[in-house]
Design goal:
This protein is mostly beta strands and 180 residues long. It has 1 helix and 9 strands; from the N terminus they run H-E-E-E-E-E-E-E-E-E. The strands form 2 sheets. A 5-stranded mixed beta sheet has the order 2-9-8-4-6, with no helix packed on it. It has a 4-stranded antiparallel beta sheet with strand order 1-3-7-5, with no helix packed on it. The mean pLDDT is 85.
């Protein structure tokens, strides 16, 4: 007898093994929510950072321009052909430093008007004041009340200006000595 045993096989058509599925064991499939949660957290962090950094940015201050000009004294008296000095006070009423041009706007008195040398254009810090000498020479034929207008204009905003009127009364004073 053989030591080896022989297995008896069934003769006939062998059937293929059909796997059996159980419906109760299959879970309904869901997409993985972890990437969506990570993306949401990143968006929240980005928005929070943007809000934080924009709150740190200071808004630019509102810039306003302005100028005021006045005379220390007005209504000067002089003889025909002589001169007199006015003191023009220029004030920067702006919120920043500005440059101002000083010039003759009108000269109805026919004066020779001289603005202090080097002060035809000035730079003034905000809320600062600058006195400027204005020399007015009358003509030899001038008589009575005569006047001229000066204008102080802002460089920062050309619509900002200030005007002053120089009043000069010309008349003969007292005795004249004639040498000859």
């Amino acid at each position: 007898k053989d030591m080896a045993r022989r297995v008896k096989r069934k003769k006939g058509n062998p059937k293929a093994a059909i796997p059996t599925y159980r419906e109760e064991g299959v879970k309904t499939a869901r997409p993985d929510t972890r990437p969506a949660l990570i993306a949401l957290l990143l968006v929240i962090l980005l928005i929070g950072s943007a809000l934080y950094f924009t709150s740190m940015v200071e808004e630019a201050p509102v810039v306003e321009y302005g100028v005021d000009a006045k005379l220390l004294t007005n209504n000067h008296n002089t003889e025909p052909g002589r001169d007199t000095d006015f003191v023009l006070i220029v004030e920067n009423t702006a919120s920043i430093t500005d440059t101002f041009d000083i010039g003759v706007k009108s000269n109805d008195g026919g004066f020779v008007i001289t603005i202090e040398e080097g002060y035809e254009s000035i730079i003034l810090a905000k809320n600062k004041v600058k006195p400027i000498i204005i020399n007015v020479k009358t003509s030899a034929s001038a008589t009575g009340l005569l006047y001229a207008h000066l204008e102080v204009k802002s460089h920062g905003d050309i619509s900002q200006s200030s005007n002053v009127r120089l009043n000069v009364t010309t008349k003969e004073f007292g005795n004249h000595v004639i040498e000859g």
